[in-house]
Amino acid sequence: MRVALAGFNHETNTFNPRPTTLADFRGPLGTWWVGDQVTGAATGTRSVLGGMIDEGRAWGWDLIPIFFAMHPPTTGTITDEAVDAIRANIVDPIARGRFDGILLHLHGAACAENVPDPEAIILREVRCVVGSDVPIVVVFDLHANIGREWAEHANAIIGYKTAPHTDFYDRGVEGARILGRALRGEIRPVVALEKPPVLIKSGLMSMTTAPLALIKPPMFWLMSRGREMERETGIVNVSIAAGFGDADSATTGMTVLVTADGDRDLARRRARELARLAWRLRRGTQTELVLTPVETAIDRAIHAAEWPVILADQGNNTAGGSPGDGTAILAGLKAAGWPDAALFIADPESVNAAWEAGVGREVDLRVGGKNEPTNGDPVAMRARVRLITDLEVDFVTGDRKAHLGRAAVVRSGQTDVVLTQYPSTQTTPAYFRAAGIEPRDRRIVVVQSAHLFRAAFEVQERIPRMIIEVDTPGITSPNTTRFTYRNVPRPIFPLDDFAWEGADGD
Q1: Residue 263: strand, helix, or coil
Q2: Residue 37: inside a domain, yes or no?
Q3: At which of 285, 300, 326 does a domain end?
Q4: In sequence order, what are the residues at sequence separation of 6 or more whose Cβ sits closer than 8 angstroms to the Cβ of residue 496?
Q5: Partner of 476 for a Cys bridge, out of 182, 320, 435, 499, CB 3.0 to 4.6 A?
């Protein structure tokens, strides 16, 4: 069996003013793998592609790597040029070959200048060139806005089940296994899709059951019910995309996908059941239930009986599209007299000033607040330079390294600020350790992350004694009412108060 392997990943925050260009995908922060580069880089990793490769080889396939492109979500809307190049690199080689099956790893939240759902276009064109008889299986990210067109072109659509995402590899294996069973004729996967009109931004999707977790009932209970459904005869997979409310697009919002073995009516019934459950649970996504104001959060952290305390910067979540230079917590720490704390700020201008001053010297800086107006104003600080370095960190999955460029650690009072050339989302303690900071030894640790940090900090290493999710301003604030949406389907909760006709009956 000849199976094509390809993918495209970008989580597009359309509120980020900086476009994502073709040069970004091909640049130092991007991934642009062609042909054998895909298997060469992904084989042996715990990534989605790594799982697809391992399972495909177990089935004895002739696995043909096509293309994979990715860029972190620290830039905004993708240029048409970049989308055209990515589409051509995926579709054209598949059109030239002969394949028995297709495996695609698509994120599900990409937005381009004039193409609101570029991944649907890629799926449509792949289906067009391979014909109706070749099974296509897609694995996507939980933070995805899945359009209805996806279900027209894919035989199975498989999403992550965890947030923080700890099941990359498992979902890759599952996607390849479903394709393998389809190719053998053991199953005939068909997918049904429902979109309950619920809009969630990324800070409200945590599903961890770890001791310090603040469980968000909507996604936790939806995913739990989906897992129960998967034990039912005839159900192949149940996936729930929480959506990516940081994208203002026609497909933005939650999506329920159920893949069944040849029984589309069964898939539709179960998808509708979950969609109705999502609607009944919608009020649990209101941000005042889970977020703490900045001043209150810092005061609680300073006076906590046990530490470290992690402050999760919700509005400055670089994994959701923030440029990483939000200053709300930094300004709060300054107002509190620079307590024992450590945090990251992306600010190449301040990095250059620290490098010019040199280690051990004091320097006057205006830190952060230079890329996006809702992220706050620059914070004036006089600081001593503790470290200058080119910073590189092992990525959360251990498969790649995160390149943060030139960096400097500067200290005011007892607060260490790690200044970096490129944005980062401190999802693991390795970010701090690479900068010479041991998070276990600090009273306050600030992460520019909504919930992905929990897997390493809380579950694996059990570092924090308390976690406070901070209601900071910025383009990744979970509070959708702070934003102007022009393209999302309306009405939608919580932007509108309405009765949904799909909530009762079929």
Answers
A1: coil
A2: yes
A3: 285
A4: 490
A5: 320
Torsion of CA 328, 329, 330, 333, to 10 degrees: 130
Same domain, 345 and 392: yes
Give yes or no: residues 122 and 253 share one domain: yes
Residue type, 298: I
Whether the Cβ atoms of residue 62 and residue 56 lie closer than 8 Å to each other: no
What single letter denotes the amino acid at residue 406? R
Strands 401-412 and 379-394, by their bridges, are antiparallel
Is the same domain home to 261 and 403?
Answer: no
Residue 237 contacts residue 174 (beta carbons within 8 Å):
yes
The three state secondary structure string of 57-125 is HHCCCEEEEEEEEECCCCCCCECHHHHHHHHHHHHHHHHHCCCCEEEEEECCCCCECCCCCHHHHHHHH
Per the structure, the complete domain to which residue 324 belongs is given by 291-477
List of residues 6+ apart from 236 with CB closer than 8 A: 156, 178, 187, 189, 230, 259, 260, 261
Nearest to 98 by CA among 207, 215, 2: 2
Kind plus residue range of the DSSP H or E element containing 433: helix 430-434
Query: Is residue 220 one of the residues assigned to a domain?
Result: yes
Cα-only R_g, the chain = 23
The pTM for the full model equals: 0.89
Q: Does residue 166 contact residue 455 with C-beta atoms inside 8 Å?
A: yes
Cα distance between residue 51 and residue 441, in whole Å: 36
3-state helix, strand, coil in the chain (%, to 5): 35, 25, 40
- Examine the fold and report which residue of 285, 314, 346 is the final residue of a domain before the chain moves on: 285
Q: Taking the chain (506 residues) in consecutive chunks of 10 residues, what is each chunk's mean pLDDT? A: 97 95 95 97 95 98 98 94 98 97 98 94 98 98 95 97 90 98 98 96 64 63 93 97 94 97 97 96 81 95 96 93 95 98 98 98 97 92 97 66 92 98 94 97 96 89 94 92 94 95 69
| Of 209, 280, 270, 262, residue with least CA distance to 238 | 270
470: which DSSP letter? Answer: E
pLDDT of residue 506: 44
Chain center to CA of 166: 12
Are residue 392 and residue 415 in the same domain, yes or no?
Answer: yes
Q: Is there a contact between 106 and 117 (Cβ–Cβ < 8 Å)?
A: no
Q: Give residue 199's identity as a one-letter amino acid code.
A: L
Residue whose tokens read 């080889």: 57
On whether residue 101 sits in a domain, the answer given is: yes
Residue 398: predicted pLDDT: 43
